[in-house]
Amino acid sequence: MTEIDVARVVKGSAYLGAQSMATTIINVVSFAFIARILTQTEMGVTVALSLTVGIAALLADLGFSSGLTKHIAECRGRNVDYAAITFTGLLMKVSMASFIAVICALAAPYFSELLLKTAEYALLFRMLSVYLLFVCINVTMGSFLLGLNKIREIATLSLVVVFTQQTFAVALLLLGYGLVGLVTSWILGSSTYTILSTLMVIKGKHIKMRPIKEVATHAEMLAKFSWPLFLSAMVYFLYEWFDRSVLLFYIPLREMGVYSVAYKAFFVLSTMPGALGAALFPYYSEQYGKDKEETILASVRGATRYIALLYTPLALGLAVTANPTITLFAGSIYASGDVILVILSLVAAISGLGVAFGGLFLVYDMTPTILLINVVSVGVSLALSPVLLPSLGAPGMAIVKGAALIVSFVLSTVALRRRIPIKFDKEALWKSWGAAIVMFVIVWLVEQINFSPYLLPVYVLVGGATYAGSLRILKAINKNDLQLIRNLMGKHVASLVDVLEKVLI
Question: Against a cut of 0.90, is the pTM above it?
């Protein structure tokens, strides 16, 4: 992996990382308002709405989006025209999305009755049909841009959309529009992404009209690659949503709201390493197109290093501050969700490493393997559910969810190593965990001495200082790590990097 390649991947992940950080801040601030304005029952209703959108997006995608990213990136690596592939993907997605949106609008009362045991929310499901039309199209547009390696553009668009959506959400809720206002803000945000991304693709001439014969040929090619992926996506959707789907029928909406708040905090955490994974996927596809497997292997090892050093303390830090985090940002009525957040955060510290190599299943056409892994993970989870749910309730479901994440991570590692000799940066792993455990213990002791949700910034500062000091003692950071930051950020952060070097090395 050349220095230019490293800089490109890291710069791409940095764009997405900065966007992720900015959107996280926006989401956290807006969620503090949303959770306090909506009732616990209304928070439970949002789970049913999100479940409906997820199912619609899954059915409209047919597994094509990941295939589009892979094939577009490979064509770029081989200097082959890809405009016909993008046109085929967009045509199929718009057709499917429109059909599903109409179905959702017509069947709104039935969906409301099925998921919420009352038809009084039918209007929300009708409004949702407009939202899911944009969402389904946006998945494909995002795949186009990712395949084109437009990482900076993706980050910018995502930030604009989140800001638009959350600003309108808070404003409409404060004006008293309730869930109707919330869904309206979703529509405004998603339509913004659709318009801007479409203009970007058209302006760059990345899509061109093609005759039906050519469209059929590319559709057949995408279908052959994507059908196992679609089956896998169905199982993965169940893997992602089985906890909330089961709880939606098992517990009252009020308790569902508590679980939803804890899960949102976990979701924010789990998306953080995704910035690197999103940047690596098209890069892996390009290198595969150039037949450079050794470069892919080096990239995987490097990715595990930085995920371990940066993500492990975040996961353990959220676990030890779960109660003050939920209380401060969502309100004391959701504080009982801290146990759920602790369980999910501890599991995420382990499973988050999978981001470094998850995209390789698509790069190496191992889509049936993804399907098998997801089936096993869901099977283990469903087997545990009847055992843990009756006695533990929502926390029991968090344990079940965590088991699914661990099983998936272990099986993914084993399956890939049978295909290519991927390796982790073991030194970074044990040093990051050692430093993070010390941080966890110190912050926990400080909380025992003086606990208050309003002291969360103090706990964060104590944890950060402890982790940095532990990294220095363990000599976990080297000059190459800091030089990478210098190359990435330029001279304007040179003084900051010099300070980091004195602190960490």
Answer: no
